[in-house]
Amino acid sequence: MTLQIAPFLQAVVVNNGSDLHIKVGGPPRIRISGTLVPLQVDPLTAEAAETLIRETMPADVAAHFAATNEADYALSVPGIGRFRVNAFRARGAAGCVLRLVRLNPMSLEELGLPDVIRQLALEPRGLVLVTGPTGSGKTTTLSAMVDAVNETRAAHILTIEDPIEIVHQDKLASVTQRELGTDTADWSVAMRAAMRQDPDVILIGEMRDAETVKAGLSAAETGHFVMSTLHTTDAKETVNRIIDFFPPHEQKQVRLGLATSLRGIICQRLVPRADGNGRAVAMEIAVNGPRLAEAIADPDKTDTIEDIIASGGYNGAQTFDQHLVRMVLDGTVSIREGKLMSSNTHDMSVMLKRAGIDPTLVDEAV
Q1: Which NCBIfam families does the entry mention (predicted)?
Q2: Which of 109, 120, 243, 263 has the most CB atoms in a 10 Å sphere around its CB?
């Protein structure tokens, strides 16, 4: 049976979009290079939207949606692609957002990511976190890191995802991918079982609560290499978020565990390219070392994390603003967009001046 939503999904692929938004009262919209663009079709009625969304759901998902008014699931459409779907109700009407995902991972080289990302991906043990807002490319980066391990280590890679977005085929490694709701009941159950599945590398799709964080840290401390994501904006906030998952009486121990097991934090933001051809990824990269470990362990020094990263260029570390300045210098992004996406506009303006650029030329690309 052909899905009624299929032409809209095809439009996402043809227009190099990332998401399809279905909402009552307006036409379907596609996100292209960060901007929502309406399709030239009639606005959706409540009945039409309900039909479009319901026909994408397996029976068990439909039952869950009927009971809770929310559902996360994957949708594969032959000849078009695979989508991650979040369905919901807003003011009583059904709506959903479908994210286009790749069937095969891109490599770190194809993504143009710095060499330090490969070094972090190939750590034998410890914890690496990839963070950023929804739609910032965390899944793409993590899948490339998993692919790097898959190509170089004869290891068992276990992923726990909600849902599985990118399918990995065995290369040198053996890859086991488990999906919440289909293969396991929840994150905590899957993490408890993971320790009995002889993994060398564990990918946790998202650290959502204290139990998952504790399990991930425990796995990293006992010789496994763990990768996961958080919805945080920079490295300092990432550290604080992890600590804040726990009650005060546990936080000292968590700080010490994180300081010891953390290998790096990769934070991402997508920035419109100066040439209008899509978006480029700006990264803050924290690589753990004695100074960073001390700042994580000591709450009085956590505020110094950004300064430590800024002075860590020797090991591949960089702040967002340092990376954005380089992107302005090489013409990847405009001064205006670079300043809009910077963590500290004043500091970035100072760095631009030192590089010989007038930061007031906000409408110019270098």
Answers
A1: pilT_fam (TIGR01420)
A2: 120
